[in-house]
Amino acid sequence: MTTTQESEDHVPYEDEVLQWRQKVEASLRGEESWLSLAGLFWLAPGENSIGSGRGSAILLPEGTAPEAAGVIGFNGTQAVFRAAPGVTAHVGQERIETVVLQPDVSALPTRVLLSDLTFIIVRRGDRWGVRVWNRNHPARTAFPGRRWYPIDEGYVLPARYVRYDPPRPVMLANVLGDSEPTPCPGHVEFEVNGASARLLVTEADDEGLFLIFADTTNGKTTYPPGRFLATGPAVGEQVTLDFNRAYSPPCAFSPYATCPLPPAENRLPIAMEAGEQYDPAWRGG
Questions:
Q1: How many CA atoms lie within 13 A of 245 on its CB side?
Q2: DSSP string, 170-223
Q3: What are 47-87's pLDDT values in tens digits?
Q4: pLDDT tens-digit profile of 87-144?
């Protein structure tokens, strides 16, 4: 990750951050993005009807799919979609009539295409749900755009990455109220505005670290529950935290996202006035 230095492609730091912000803006408006989410429905044991007709357990937006598109059978450990007679549904390029739905926590989750919609199974704790995207969702064009603090290189901070061997469990909650122990690979130590700070790392791999943090801007200029931050690769114990790239979680853009919340240890008692801001007037969905 570059800081005040130019990148290998000789892109000035500020231009590099602006390019990154343009990419995340474009991603947010994609066909299967947070802005195109059209529903999240929790499965009940037995047959769950799916369609745009009134009375459907999984109620699809009017005009986007057949009134009776089929059923999703659920036995507590497996979900199976069966298309109604005459209904066209695909998984990839293959037309299907019946398919076992692998959830999002599996290596290859099943994505079912149904008219203008895509749906998958999500697992959150013991619950199984159906997440639906609408490629023609009006929010994709109505969204006014992400808002950001001005780029400030004072928020590009060197940090020490302390690895845990083995990873330590940390309780991680989400907006649904679920909470479960999650392996924590380590923490980062750094200084900001002359004060020492420390954040637990939620995920780590060869591409970098992922953190969820809160600070005193939350609920004022940034998303109330907190924000996300991804880094470049750690080099030994050294890693760079670029808070100009701190961004809002999916729940800032859709009521149908199920975002993790910052662990209690990651609530900074200072204002990180960098990265993405939040417009409370926006209501997705």
A1: 25
A2: EEEEBTTS-EEEEEEEEEEEEEETTEEEEEEESEEETTEEEEEEB-TTBTTTB-
A3: 999 999 999 999 999 999 999 999 999 999 999 999 999 99
A4: 999 999 999 999 999 999 999 999 999 999 999 999 998 899 999 999 999 999 899 9
Question: Could you tell me the residue range of the domain that residue 79 belongs to?
Answer: 34-141
Distance separating alpha carbons of residues 140 and 62, to the nearest angstrom: 17
**Cβ within 8 Å of residue 221, ≥6 positions away:** 149, 273, 277, 278
44: DSSP letter:
P
Using the 3D structure, point to which of 106, 141, 176 is the last residue of a domain. Answer: 141
CATH number of the CATH domain containing 79: 2.60.200.20
Residue 225 sits in the same domain as residue 270: yes
Prediction pTM value: 0.90
Same domain, 116 and 84: yes
Q: Do 195 and 256 lie in a common domain?
A: yes
